[in-house]
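Bench log. Compound arrived from synthesis this morning; before running ITC I wanted a structural hypothesis for how guanosine-5',3'-tetraphosphate sits in the protein. Inputs:
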Amino acid sequence: MSDNRPRRTFAVISHPDAGKSTLTEALALHARVITEAGAVHGKGDRRATVSDWMAMEKARGISITSAALQFVYRDHVVNLVDTPGHSDFSEDTYRVLSAVDSAVMLVDAGKGLEPQTLKLFRVCALRGIPVITVINKWDRPGLSPLGLMDEIERQIKLRPTPLTWPVGEAGDFRGVLDRRTGEFVKYTRTAGGATRAPERRMASSEVEDVDAQAWSDAVDEHELLSLDAADHDQERFLAGETTPVMFASALQNFGVAQLLDLLLDLAPAPSATEGVDGSVRQVDDPFSAFVFKVQSGMNSSHRDRMAYARVVSGTFERGMVVTHASTGRPFATKYAQSLFGRETSSVEQASPGDIIGFVNAQALRVGDTVYDGEPIDFPPVPSFAPEHFMAVSARDIGRYKQFRRGIEQLDQEGVVQVLRSDLRGDQSPVLAAVGPLQFEVVEERMTHEFTSPIRLTRLDYSVARLTDADGARTLSGFRGAEVLQRTDGTYLALFIDKWRANNAAREFPDVLLDELPAGGS
Ligand code: G4P
């Protein structure tokens, strides 16, 4: 959808079970959902998430693409970009984060920071994405709020700056103290949290309907936080040094309107983006977009392949012919939208920050740029250090053609990284993953979608370092190491463990052996 309304594009990220689906639903409830298309035939790695969104579609009568939920709130257009659920956690999440301007990190009040929360915070820091933290499930017994702030500060080195502070301990959630106005925001439960929860604001001198002790405790803690310089600072938030915090119960719809207000008031709007050559695309320059996700097999009756792109600049108009930066070829978007979702519906126009889906765009890969006007090529979406490696081969050699096509497709989608060497040959490449669940996705899709069941053999490596052709030659006889090449031409040196990698670096000081950004555990 294109118009002049301001945009906010964000993702909700969390450890599994912190309440991401519940919050997404609550956000949709508070806003006017405008997405028209619903691409809901997920397969393999998308199944869990897609089915959650499908259930939501049914329950609420709203419609969601498998990539983004678009809604209007206070005359802003908000794009909530979907991230994979826990059962398929992989590099996909990291790539999705390249398409957003901010993230909402959901923390379970009873559990505090969990392993995936920490990993995701790290990735946001790496990509410079400002994070708003929501402490969820405050309607249930949980940790102390000051203890949680301390944990955030110690474990992720971000200064928490609470914007609201809970009144009533976890499990007895009465409302919050709005730290910017000093008011009490009182929440009232509705049956099953099925409708918007009514809120009443009261000046601190007029607080009623709440235990006096609970209120004075909240005021005391609020003052302690102010003394400790834990007040919101917009510049430091945008610089990734602080994280505004709020307390909520997604299930009860408590705090959801405040979160939307925060996103509009504090989260960054789409902004200029730098290309690989250092040139800058301003949002009002001619159209440009980059592909952050490629997905296939969503519609079993058509062998379709969707490429999802985030609009960086200009206005996208369906039917325009753009240039595919990596090949320099024209790319027609005429039919691109015609199969978007379950129905034949289309996105006619889109603005910076919006997500568009190109159907059957065989040429588009993850990280690709398309543009109109002056050329631009955005930097590739970073790949993370794989830590799990399997040799793969076709179970039935008679289905080698299907095997090759399937592996090529999954490689292009970025489901796993595919590594090859002359030594191993094309019949048995190596699959490299950040998380082992990626292999399950490959197995399932190879069997069902590409009709070539595979054999996976675990390799003993756990560390990958970036090297080059020289490195490949030098390391070719080095014990406990092997150099393979990714489809994009990058050489990766695999080692059994980091001691051997460090040993090789000492023994061959002139050989390039750079570390890759860590994504896994
Ligand atoms: P996820 O997408 O992050 O994995 O989490 P999801 O929303 O599925 O929520 C996980 C569980 O936590 C669900 O319970 C959900 O109802 C519950 N939950 C989410 N937000 C809140 C909250 O604010 N307060 C409380 N008390 N619970 C919350 P479940 O029993 O696993 O599923 P269900 O049967 O309730 O759907």
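What the model suggests: The radius of gyration is 24 Å. Residues 35-51, 60-65, 338-345 have pLDDT under 50 and may be disordered.
ITC booked for Thursday regardless.
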